Amino acid sequence: MTVHYGISNSWDALMPYNSVSGSNYARMIYDKIYDRLAYVHADGTLSPRAAKRWENTDEGYAALFHLDENATFHDGTQVTAAHWVETFTLMTDPACPVLGRGNFSVFVGTDQDGCRTDGESFGVEAVDDFTLKLTFKVPTTPEDFLLDKNREFYVLPTHLLEGVDPSVLMELDLWKKPVGSGPCKFVEELPGSQLTLAANQHYQLGAPGFDYLVITVMDKSNLLTALIAGDLDYYAIGGSVSAEDAPLAESSGLTILEGTVPNTFFELMLNGNSIPDARVRRAIELALDKELLCEQSTHGLGTAAGSSISPESPYADAAVTAGERDVEAAKQLLAEAGYDGRSYTLVCTSNRSGLAALMQQNLAEAGINVIIETVDSAAMFAGMSDGTYDMGIASHTPGALPLWFTESRLSSTNNIFHIADLTPYTARIQAIRSETDQSKRLELVAELDTYLAQERPFIPLWFGTALHAQSPTVSNIDYPSSSFSNENVWEWVKE
């Protein structure tokens, strides 16, 4: 059986540490050919992949990963802890032109760029043939490490790389016909267009229930037509079936699946330099009808949010709720802040102009004047970064960790909200990262989220899911969960 799988954009490399984009389109390919330590489900739970189990050690500064002895590379070579150590050692070599090496900076013995530091012990070691020990710079639970970094790390066939100069590693012909240890084997590639993979019959979690998987790059405008015509069995990331098209898809024999976990998070970015008073920022939030905005934008597939913490996250209990719209309370806060009626610029991309118009109307009812400017995505983020705009509408792929959004946005290197003093945020974030006791961590997360609701450097709008269609062929497949999935997008579960 051959399954035809569609995506809207191409991968940019077949070597997992050489992706310029670092996009989900590339990760989707790596997830099939190569293996990771664990599988991270979209709801934040974990299950085994290369590692059977894991545990904390060294007072929270290290984690032990017990590897599956049945894991083998596609050439039949057994995967050992040494392969993982050699992979990480090679990727942290300053001479190796790795893209995304900063992910390795969490380990002892590396600098801020993820390069190994001369004279220091490297925090990656093989305790025995099938036990990998990772030592971190700050206390980190294995679960947090996996939720945060699992999708960045893959084991390479280092037995095929002996004697290779790290400086030319990315130029090897091996990456044109890669050998991994994942659930699928490489067959052939039409660069940028199509990739054919075969089921790995010896995958330690069980062989996928198909013979071949053909991944084709296809414009999202052709999504439904291709599914109905039978050119595709499943369409992955980059497109979804609209609520209006769902009846046609179902009448054509397709199964329509509604996402079970959010795959988008919408926020209103605020410029703390041009809107410095927290009372005005809070008034903007109170003036917005989040329920209406969410309904109009997601057609019932979204949930209004008061926090960037995903409703499916283990930390969801710490999240501030969306609350109700209160125009009178917004007006009162504006009066207290001495708002003078000045106009704010709201920037958005063209596909969100309707949403921006609704926001403009909402804010006008509270007496807040807004001028809409429509630009492309790059110009929007550039303008928010340099302070050109006062507000901007953005969306992101949410993660299960409570800091997935705040840690990256509330930092000196990415202070896109132009916060004058980041210390109250960064101190709370560091306290959360350093706390290994789960109950205390929940308290710290709740404290940060409450502070964010009080100061409102950004306004959470909603979390949304999507509708996807699949053919009867795909519905009847039996497969291990890791073989047909893509982290942070959605998952397929073995039936």
Descriptive keywords:
disordered C terminus; 14 helices; 495 residues; 27% helix; five-stranded mixed sheet; alpha+beta
What's the short version?
By secondary structure, the chain is α+β, with helices and mostly antiparallel strands. It has helices at residues 24-33, 81-91, 142-149, 223-229, 246-251, 278-287, 290-298, 327-337, 353-365, 377-385, 406-409, 423-434, 438-455, 472-475; strands at 2-7, 38-40, 46-48, 51-57, 62-67, 124-128, 131-135, 184-190, 194-199, 212-217, 234-235, 255-258, 264-270, 302-304, 343-348, 369-374, 391-396, 458-464, 467-470. The strands form five sheets. It has a six-stranded mixed β-sheet, sandwiched between helices.
The number of helical segments is 14
Mean pLDDT: 88
- Looking at how many chains there are and whether they match, the oligomeric state comes to single chain
Order of the strands making up the biggest sheet? 14-18-13-17-15-16
How would you describe the shape? globular
Based on CA atoms alone, the radius of gyration comes out at 24 Å
Separation of the first and last Cα atoms: 18 Å
Please outline the major beta sheet.
6 strands, mixed
Secondary structure category? alpha+beta
Unreliable segments of 5+ consecutive residues: 478-495
Beta content comes to 15-25%
Query: What share of the residues lie within helices?
Result: 25-40%
How many strand segments?
A: 19
